Give the backbone structure.
Amino acid sequence: QVQLVESGGGLVQPGGSLRLSCAASGFRFSDYGMKWVRQAPGKEGEWVTDINRGGSTTSYTDSVKGRFTMSRDNTKNTLYLQMNSLKPDDPTVYFCAFGHFRGQGTQVTVSS
């Protein structure tokens, strides 16, 4: 079955960086565009970024442009999200997703 497993979250100081990964299995990864979404406690999920099947095209929500970079490695069935210049108000749980599938999420906490 479809599995999406995120990792790489943690505690980082404001201005710091993290690299999230998402290991995909159970489907032909290279056939699907993918996305990252994030969600803060008590709030609706927010689309962050997406990438096309081949990895040549990405889109970002305005609040992360210039700070976050999404990429994928279709040989490893893995999605990445490089997050730089993290801010305390960057919401906390990040999920990789496609269609109606979503992983369990990885928590990012930005605090001094």
